[in-house]
Amino acid sequence: MTSTCPHLLQRVSSARSTAVRSHSHAALLRPFPLPSIPLLVPLIPGVPLTSELPKPNYSDPRGSVRRLLNALLVRATSDPCARMCWNLRLFHKDVALRYGILLYGWPADIPFMNLSTGHGSPSMAQVRHLLTLLTVQPQPRMYFIRATPEQLLAAERNVLGAVAPGPLFPAPAPLPYFGRSDISRRRVFKRDSDGNAIPHRYIRNGPKSAKVISKELDSEGSDEVSVVN
Fold first, then answer.
1. What's the predicted TM-score (pTM) here?
2. For residue 7, what pLDDT band results from cuts at 50, 70 and 90?
3. Handedness of CA 83, 171, 104, 101 (dihedral sign)
4. Which of 35, 58, 100, 144 is 20–30 Å from 85 (CA)?
């Protein structure tokens, strides 16, 4: 039953009656739709969650990277005494060959070496990038994986490149500027709107040698040498 009052419309249901003033008011009384659930990121099997690792100290990125990689190495090997090696030969011997695992996800533009300050060591920006890869949610983007038989065979043959997480050497620095690069090249004359060649700013009027030495000049030179002797 619906009342005919112009200011208030009342809907009667079997459960209970609800006073509705207008259609928009009825829409407000409906329950809100459920929020859309975001798609879940597939987890990598065998890799711990970032929340299970030690919390990083962003004021000490080098120490945080070392602690996180040590924690990942302990979980990957089930050895509480396992420690990360930052020298390639020690990593080859004490990590790759000892546990049969490799470090996956090391950036290709960062050389694998000790994070301490020194010649060729990663910069602070690169260390922060490593820390970002280790603290991303829900799982770190850099972790340890089991080595394949081919990789282990290459490691047993002392091939360091087969187990190196990153490049063996830092990227070469660009060469400094040594001046003009058009030395010994033919100079091109600039032309004006009429097609006439524009002379260079500095005119070279110095002495110039002949391109071809004639027989007369050659004979005169030989005569002078004989007279001197």
1. 0.56
2. very low
3. negative
4. 58
